[in-house]
Amino acid sequence: MxxxxxNIKESLVRDLESVNKPQDIVDLKAKYVGKSGCITExxxxxxxxxxxxxxxxxMLVNEVKNYANDxxxxxxxxxxxxxxxxxxxxxxxxxxLPSKKIKRGSLHPMTRMVEEFEDLFVSMGFTVFEGPxxxxxxxxxxxxxxxxxxxxxxxxxxxxxxxxxxxxxxxSQTSTAQVRAMEANEEKGPIRIVCPGKVYRRDEDATHxxxxxxxxxxxxxxxxxxxxxxxxLEVMMKRILGEKTQVxxxxxxxxxxxxxxxxxVTCFKCGGKxxxxxxxxxxxxxxxxxxxxxxxxTMSGYDPKVYQGFAFGTGIDRMAxxxxxxxxxxxxxxxxxxxxxxxxxxxxx
Length: 349
Ligand code: PHE
What we know:
Blueprint (H helix, E strand, L loop, with lengths): L1 H16 L4 H11 L5 H4 L9 H40 L18 H15 L3 E2 L5 E3 H4 L27 E3 L5 H9 L6 E10 L10 E11 L4 H16 L5 E8 L2 E10 L16 E10 L1 H6 L8 E8 H9 L12 H4 L9
């Protein structure tokens, strides 16, 4: 018996030397410790032995079985590790490979325009001021020198709320921010703000939408003159529409500014020569502006003898339509992804 066992051990050690793949391990297990393996065979004739003999043989067989299992599983681990290492070496990641192209989103042209305006004005020392879209008649009209019944209301007398909240409407102009900014300034000191936001009017055609965006500017300080207004607007137009842009001021009328101007820029399509976009005039009207009316200053708590100011308001959609050559304003609000995709970070690539 002992001799048998020694032979088995020796043969196992020899066999192990030539083992080098997982199948060899399977075969080895079958040969030694499997159901009909040679170690299991040793117990075959146990039945004929005495109890004492059974004990000794049992112990010997168990011992050789453990011995075989230990050696085989050690070898199995070695083989598995070798396979894993080989795999890791082969599969090293090539970090120089180009990555898969990830589809990036794009900013809506309105967001982009608003950010452009904000960056510009913040760089000139303005702060961004926001006001609500639902506004009182008082802030939208009365405190801007447009009392009830004033003809200037006609073009903007639009989306009012029903009885419960009488005299509230969707703001028709961002000029409401002038009132709000002046009233919010408790010291009644200098102000420099821009207020971008949505406004609502009873309009609907290719160049007018019932909802559009404006940006309002307001500067209040001592010794503010028309020259400050002109300088600021010239910088704004050149930055937004290109350095070649020329700016022209025409006298106009707004109830909340005196004097008032309308501002034209040279047509960016023809550069001022005259084309269908500018109706052969070479100029395109882009904004309204003026010196804040003394009554407007007074109504919001400023002394017009001490403080002056200028204000301007322009349509952001209109600017975007010119800048990006968008023929129909309604596409800006249509949420058609094919429209928005055309602004896919073009100028950043
Ligand atoms: N709120 C005016 C408009 O919507 C524009 C404007 C703003 C005019 C500020 C003068 C001063 O037409």
